[in-house]
Amino acid sequence: MSSLQEFQTRHDLSMEALCARILERHAATIRVKKPAVAVANLARIVETTLMLANRKGFHSMSLRDLTEQSGLSMGALYAYFDSKDTLLMMILGQVVGVVEEVLAHPPDGLANDPAARLRWLLRTHLFLTETMHPWFVFAYMEAKSFPQDGRDLAVGSEMMTESMIAVALADGVARGRFAVPDVMMAAALIKPMLQDWYVKRAKHRRRGITPDLYADQLIAFVEAAVGLKRA
């Protein structure tokens, strides 16, 4: 996978596809049983929630705001979730689930090449956050107001991605490809550079930086920082 377009062709992360996964995860509690109707309404709910959260903050958003902006009645909303906290966990759970689904299983051919695996992790993470940009901005910006279970889920996901990076770095050190004295610290320093793309995307766009260019430059920077020895 070498480009954003290739990533998006390989992974269906459209709003409809993501909401279909939410429906599957929460089928026991969502009272609407017609999948097409449920997915369409979930898409309206999630899109509106992400928009309102970006505009005024999820904590300040009321369910009345959500009904007015989504066009769904209060009763219709309660057919999908019983509280704002449940809605938050639906959205956050989908973000965490996709991160694990996409990043936890690198191609088999990278198992014995830590440098290629690290490149794949960085590029894939960046393309994932670009494709699901409003979802990741929501998870990042709203983290401070999450309930405890939401904070635990968000922190766990962040630690999971850092651990994936650290494992690739440790493998590279063991094989003599990287010179990294503390792989966990290095992974913790790399993670904010990945987050910078989706948190400050407007700044990068004003400079004419595309996701593909950012990925290339980030990988070059990280490889220099970890002292990559070319095979």
Automatic annotation (TrEMBL):
PROSITE patterns: HTH_TETR_1, HTH_TETR_2. It holds the Pfam family TetR_C_24. Residues 62-81 bind DNA. This is TetR/AcrR family transcriptional regulator. Gene3D superfamilies: Homeodomain-like, Tetracycline Repressor, domain 2. Residues 39-99 form the HTH tetR-type domain. The keyword Cell membrane does not apply. Keywords: DNA-binding, Transcription, Transcription regulation. GO terms for molecular function: DNA-binding transcription factor activity; transcription cis-regulatory region binding. InterPro entries: DNA-bd_HTH_TetR-type_CS, Homeodomain-like_sf, HTH-type_TetR-like_transc_reg, HTH_TetR, KstR2_TetR_C, Tet_transcr_reg_TetR-rel_C_sf.
